[in-house]
Every structure is written in structure tokens, then in C-alpha cells.
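Researcher: Next sequence.
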Amino acid sequence: MSITVECQTRPEGSKPKALRRSGVIPANLYGHNGAESISLVVDAKTLENLLKKVAVNKTELELKVTDIPWNGTTVIKEVQTHPAKGNPYHVSFYACAKG
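Model: Next structure:
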């Protein structure tokens, strides 16, 4: 089962609360290039549907970043949720080692 997620780089200087109001969830991609990380945004509806299908730290995903030429296999390492509403608040993707 191959699941593909498309996301974009997070606009410079954008506030997380404003992003969530506009229908996107802040995210980070770690391990794609050593210790470097990329700030991303994922569509909220896409993320909610994705979280119904995958297991955190187990299911491998194909992640495509549309703004920069990077795509690869990742896992969702952490999902932060709103304490009262239970909505996804932030998600962390970790790139899988190639080999």
C-alpha cells in the first residue's frame, strides 16, 4: 500500500495559529539531509484522512514537497493534537534511510 502526501514549504514568518485558521497544519520534515529540517504545511483535511489510514512510527509514506525538488519515503514520528478539540495541531515527518 503506497500512500502519497503532497505538502508545501511553510511561508517565511507565518504564524501557526493563522495557518490553522486558513486550513493548513504546520509540519516538519527531519532527516532528509543530515541534521537539517524543513518547515512544511499540510492541508488539514488531507492530514485528517491520512491519520485514519496510517500508524504513527510504522506506516511508510511517500512525501512530496511541491516547492522544492524533494520527495522520498517518510514515517510520521509525532502528531500533536489540540488538548480540548482533539484536532491535529502539528505533525513531524522523519525521512527513512535509503538502502
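Model: The radius of gyration is 13 Å. The CA atoms of residues 74 and 95 lie 4 Å apart.
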